Amino acid sequence: MTRFTLIAAASAFCVLGAQAGEDVSFEDVDTNADGFVTETEFVSWKTASGEVSTSDALTQFIAIDADASGMISPSEMEAAMAAKDDEAMDDQDDMTAPDDPLN
């Protein structure tokens, strides 16, 4: 279970943004404006460009849906976006780290 959770959390880092570097708002994905993103809304949005498969979109949806309610709340989306931002910052820090192995 823990292994699945870690894998799911890791995949949540790259789920947002229709294209590299593009931010998305909750309202962009919540097409019926009911305050939640359903599996159908999320999968439709993620697969619209043809770059993400339905299977991958479902995996990403599950990773973001922290309470397994079958819907993504605004707070779950915010947490996924924050995790994505943290991962990007970590990647940037790794690229700028000195090459000196003693540091």
Can you tag this structure with a few keywords?
disordered N terminus, two-stranded antiparallel sheet, single chain, 103 residues, mainly alpha, 2 strands
Rg to the nearest angstrom? Answer: 15 Å
Helix and strand sequence: HHEHHEH
Count up the helices.
Answer: 5
Strand arrangement, major sheet: 1-2
* Fraction of residues in helix: 55-70%
- Look at the structure and give the mean pLDDT: 79
Rough outline: globular
- Give me the count of strands: 2
Estimate what percentage of residues fall within beta strands: under 5%
Distance, first to last CA: 36 Å
- Protein structure class: mainly alpha
Structure characterization notes:
It contains five helices and two strands, in the order H-H-E-H-H-E-H. Helix content is 56%, strand content 4%. Helix 1 (2-12) crosses helix 4 and helix 3 crosses helix 4. It has a two-stranded antiparallel ribbon. It is globular and about 40 Å long. It has 103 residues and is mainly α. It has helices at 2-12, 26-29, 39-47, 54-64, 74-96; strands spanning 37-38, 71-72. The chain starts with a helix and ends in a 7-residue tail after the last helix.
